[in-house]
Amino acid sequence: MTARSVGCVRCPALVAGRTQIVETVAVGSPPYRLLFLLEAPGYDEDILGEPAVGDCGRLLREAAAESGLKSYYIANPVRCRPRTSLMDTRGNRTPTTREVRNCLPWLADDLQTCAADLRVVVLCGGTARKAWGMLEAVAVEPATAVDTEALS
């Protein structure tokens, strides 16, 4: 994926607290039939500028590898880490609806870029579910969304 959201200043609170923008990444080689849509970036993702590099992300990548998945996308519904406060360097909060909405154009662009091969979008958490629900105007056929909460 290309860094389309570089320089974004749509969410002043996120801009003030971010180290860098976390872009969607492709793991492996094409074709990419699966996209994991995660929660908002956390501390490790903000520092490294890549999704799923913290404890939960490493677990996801290990589980994908152990199950034989070699090619997939990883995305966050928002590109900047929502910190609990500027003074709290480790705490995260759930992004607001406005913050999710402000990032939808970047997510929609990513989905359109990978739409030809994409078959499944795995929604991992409430923020992913919220963003997917707000993307009704984006057609990602023939992809199917799978909500991990519905599987528990």
Brief account:
The protein is an alpha/beta fold and 152 residues long. The chain is 34% helix and 18% strand. It is built from five helices and seven strands, in the order αββααβββαβαβ.
Q: What can you tell me about this protein's structure?
A:
Helices cover 34% and strands 18% of the residues. With 152 residues, the protein is an alpha/beta fold. The strands form 2 sheets. A 5-stranded mixed beta sheet has the order 1-3-2-6-7. β4 and β5 form a beta hairpin. The chain is globular, with a radius of gyration of 15 Å. The mean pLDDT is 89.
Helix and strand topology:
Blueprint: H1 12-17, E1 25-27, E2 34-37, H2 43-48, H3 55-66, E3 72-75, E4 83-85, E5 88-92, H4 97-114, E6 120-123, H5 126-134, E7 144-147
Parallel strand pairs: 2-3, 2-6, 6-7
Antiparallel strand pairs: 1-3, 4-5
Average pLDDT, all residues: 89
Q: From N to C, what is the helix and strand string? A: HEEHHEEEHEHE
How far do the termini sit from each other? Answer: 31 Å
Determine the strand fraction and express it as a percent band: 15-25%
SS element count, helices: 5
How would you write the strand order of the largest sheet?
1-3-2-6-7
Structural class: alpha/beta
Shape: globular
Could you tell me the number of beta strands? 7
Cα-atom radius of gyration:
15 Å
Query: Which bin fits the share of residues in helices?
Result: 25-40%
Question: Biggest β-sheet, characterized?
Answer: 5 strands, mixed
- Low-confidence runs (pLDDT<50, min 5 residues)? none
Supply database-style keywords.
18% strand; 7 strands; 152 residues; alpha/beta
